[in-house]
């Protein structure tokens, strides 16, 4: 007669650890001069203060020569960034010495393959077509950044809080806009943003921006178009 034993149940999993390629803004360090870096960061933040709140960045040291990397004060730079609401998520392009020091202050190393897709050599036989539009079918998640260079951007899904979408032309969002949307980023004042559900953290046309706290309740969570009328940012129901 077979014996049936009650095997102990496995406890529920508390977490999952998976590999995933994420899109982050890359901050390329070109000088070890922290004072100079702080000045230029402050000037950049002043152009759109609310855009850089809790802003994740990947630190890239590839352009900094090895001897300058070894003298770089990564601990002070980390504090400098966090005081300005930047959040370093990792680093790449650093030598052994800088990687070791960075590990001591809690900054990990991301391999070049995960930091950015490899560049493909241009094909001489066929000319590369100029990008005129970009279509995104999946949700844009928190921490991701999408940029349609030279054209329009269409997103068929939700743009999550903490995500950022940008285009040199127009932006069309067929899901909810809950993150940041910036159209006409290279000065196109004719660009527009169209979305089906406005609940954004920030919207911007050609550098003129408005944050969520300034939205009127009459246009919040409704289909709208966003455009410039002279220097004034307009939000109208569709």
TrEMBL record:
Membrane-crossing residue ranges in chain numbering: none
Residue ranges of every copy of the Septum formation inhibitor MinC C-terminal domain listed in the record: 136-236
UniProt keyword Cell division, yes or no: yes
Domain Septum formation inhibitor MinC N-terminal: 15-88
Pfam families: MinC_C (PF03775), MinC_N (PF05209)
Superkingdom of source: Bacteria
A Gene Ontology BP annotation from the UniProt entry: regulation of cell division
UniProt KW keywords: Cell cycle, Cell division, Septation
Family: Belongs to the MinC family.
Subunit and interaction comment: Interacts with MinD and FtsZ.
Chain's role: Cell division inhibitor that blocks the formation of polar Z ring septums. Rapidly oscillates between the poles of the cell to destabilize FtsZ filaments that have formed before they mature into polar Z rings. Prevents FtsZ polymerization.
NCBIfam families listed in its UniProt record: minC
Protein name in the entry: Probable septum site-determining protein MinC
Organism from which the protein derives: Sulfurifustis variabilis
Gene name tied to this protein: minC
């Amino acid at each position: 007669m077979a014996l049936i034993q009650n095997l102990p149940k496995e406890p529920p999993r508390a977490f999952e650890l998976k590999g995933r390629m994420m899109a982050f803004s890359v901050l390329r360090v070109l000088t070890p001069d922290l004072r100079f870096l702080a000045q230029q960061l402050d000037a950049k933040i002043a152009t759109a203060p609310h855009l850089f709140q809790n802003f994740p960045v990947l630190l890239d040291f590839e352009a900094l020569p090895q001897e300058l990397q070894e003298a770089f004060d990564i601990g002070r730079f980390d504090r400098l960034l966090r005081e300005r609401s930047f959040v370093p998520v990792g680093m790449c392009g650093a030598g052994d010495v800088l990687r070791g020091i960075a590990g001591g202050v809690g900054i990990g190393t991301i391999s070049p393959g995960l930091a950015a897709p490899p560049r493909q050599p241009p094909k001489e036989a066929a000319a590369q077509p100029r990008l005129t539009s970009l279509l995104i079918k999946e949700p844009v998640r928190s921490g991701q950044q999408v940029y349609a260079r030279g054209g329009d951007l269409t997103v068929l899904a939700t743009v999550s809080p903490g995500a950022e979408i940008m285009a040199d032309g127009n932006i069309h969002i067929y899901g909810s806009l809950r993150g940041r949307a910036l159209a006409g980023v290279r000065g196109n004042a004719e660009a527009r943003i169209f979305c089906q559900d406005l609940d954004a953290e920030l919207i911007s046309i050609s550098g003129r921006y408005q944050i969520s706290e300034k939205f009127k309740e009459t246009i919040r969570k409704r289909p709208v178009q966003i455009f410039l009328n002279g220097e004034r940012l307009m939000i109208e129901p569709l």
